[in-house]
Amino acid sequence: YRRSSRGLGDVYKRQILDSVIKLLLKRRRKTAKKLRKSLQADFDGTRQTEAEFVRRLNRVRPQVEQWLMNQLDVLACERDLLQSATTLVELSSEHVLNEHTPPTETVAAGLLRLQALFRAAFMDLAGDVSREERISATPIHDIEGELDRLTGHIVEEMYSEQRSPRNTTILLGIVLEMRDLQRELVRAASWQ
Questions:
Q1: pTM for the predicted model, two decimal places
Q2: Which of 86, 106, 117, 125 has most Cβ atoms within 10 angstroms of its Cβ?
C-alpha cells in the first residue's frame, strides 16, 4: 500500500492560495472575512476525517505496519497543509483589514509568479499532467528560488523605507508560510 498525494490538493484547496494572493492585491475587506469563515469549515471537515479514521482504526484493529504508518503520514501532511492555509489567510487578512501598505508592483509580480508556480505544483500532485499554461516543468522546486527573490524585494523595500517594519513582518510571515507549504508539497511529491 502506497501513500498517495492525489487527495492533498482537495484538502488544501488550490483556490485558497489563489484567494490569499488575490486578497493581498485587490484589498477587499469583505473577501478577507469570507475567506476566514470558509477556512473554518475546512478545518472542521479535516478534524471529522481524522476522528472517523481513528474510530475505524479502533474497530478494525490492524497491525501497525507500513501501510498504516503511510496513512498517518498522509493525515499529518493534510493537517500541515491546512495549517499553512490558515496562517496564510490570517496574515493576509491582517494585512488588508489593518490597511497596511499594498504590495508594490515588484512584490505583486513575485506573488503572481508564485501563484502560478503553486497552481502548477498542485496540478502535478493531483495527477493533472496537462502542460497547457504551465509556468515551469518543475514548479515545486522553482518555488524556492522565487521565494528567495520575493524575500529580497520585501526586505529592500523596508530598507528604503517604502514599507514599515510591521508591514514587512506580515509580508515576510506570508513568505515564510509559503516556504512551509512548499516543503509539504515536496514531501507529498516524494510519494508519487
A1: 0.79
A2: 117
